[in-house]
Design goal:
Strand content: 15-25%
Number of strands: 4
Number of domains: 1
Order of helices and strands: HHHEEEE
Structural class: alpha+beta
Shape: rod-shaped
Length: 124
């Protein structure tokens, strides 16, 4: 009987450790997914910047000019299209120098402090 109790205690300890590791792994996975979404938005901004420079004889835009260009009919039409990285994410892009990008929700779960910036080539 004592051996069975000892085995149950050991299994309980292993389950508690494994469960906490699983929760941490799920949080880390959401953060990595959010960082991937930020990279997608940065890629879109880089594409819009290249398009801007092609249309303006190679002149590099500032962050404000790039934001306005990327959210106009020239690129992604509006900020919702620029920041739409799929239904699993809530991403925001705002005007600023550099351009701030944030992901606040991944698959319905809030993630904290997942942000990035895109500095336009014409910024001082």
């Amino acid at each position: 009987m004592i051996e069975i109790i000892a085995v149950l205690v050991i299994l309980g300890i292993l389950a508690a450790v494994g469960f906490s590791r699983y929760l941490n792994l799920a949080d880390e996975t959401r953060i990595k997914a959010a960082q991937g979404a930020i990279a997608e938005v940065k890629g879109r901004l880089a594409s819009a910047q290249a398009k801007y420079m092609m249309h303006n004889n190679g002149i590099a835009p500032t962050s404000l000019q790039l934001y306005n260009y990327a959210t106009s009919a020239n690129a992604y039409v509006n900020v919702q299209n620029l920041s739409n990285v799929g239904s699993d994410f809530v991403a925001t892009v705002a005007t600023g120098t550099p351009i701030p990008i944030a992901v606040t929700v991944v698959q319905g779960t809030t993630v904290a402090n997942v942000t990035g910036n895109f500095r336009a080539a014409g910024d001082p």
